[in-house]
Amino acid sequence: xxxxxxxxxxxxxxxxxxxxxxxxxxxxxxxxxxxxxxxxxxxxxxxxxxxxxxxxxxxxxxxxxxxxxxxxxxxxxxxxxxxxxxxxxxxxxxxxxxxxxxxxxxxxxxxxxxxxxxxxxxxxxxxxxxxxxxxxxxxxxxxxxxxxxxxxxxxxxxxxxxxxxxxxxxxxxxxxxxxxxxxxxxxxxxxxxxxxxxxxxxxxxxxxxxxxxxxxxxxxxxxxxxxxxxxxxxxxxxxxxxxxxxxxxxxxxxxxxxxxxxxxxxxxxxxxxxxxxxxxx
Length: 281
Hints:
This protein is α/β, with parallel strands linked by helices. It contains eleven helices and five strands. The model is unreliable at 1-9 (pLDDT under 50).
């Protein structure tokens, strides 16, 4: 009883000092406790999402977990969400680097940039392609990718030991198998020898695919394809050095699946490439 009275006096004195009623004091205390519980739940949801996509940026994570937060009656704005991430050391800091995989000094014919002013409003209208490297202790793997420009879905890929055109052709054949009847997309790439060689161009022409290539500042003229490469590298762990090429191939397959099926895009109104591609198709 004495302890209870002492606590009452202490609370009363504190309320007088703060200039608030006992009711407001306990209301504020309760609100603070709820806020702490909510923050713990938010952190748990962020860490759970990051188990699947460790390098997914804050705004995309917030979009992914909004359903879980709403189910618990938790509302949080972007600024406060980033404050929580900052306090919990959950912000993502990225470092970028690039190894050259393009050899444009070759004897093959090149083509005009048809993609520069083109705006796709559906799938199967334009594809962008590029090559990136994957480090392993057994040597480099070269990952060739073809992405639908409208849905951002990776529709063809291949990882091989060589920078020759073989891997790009395999990637192209995978993409062609997904092409709807009657679609004749623009195929856009840089001027690398892999995309300009006779076998690659022959396959495009056989399928009546329009050919487009970068002309001047290829980093900007093929930005979409390079952006996809960067996401796979920095958000899905493909920038790491793998012990074996077999491990790298498994990571590539998993990274592309996560990118296609789980990663929301701002340009897709926070939908995933798979969702947009399926709806458009």
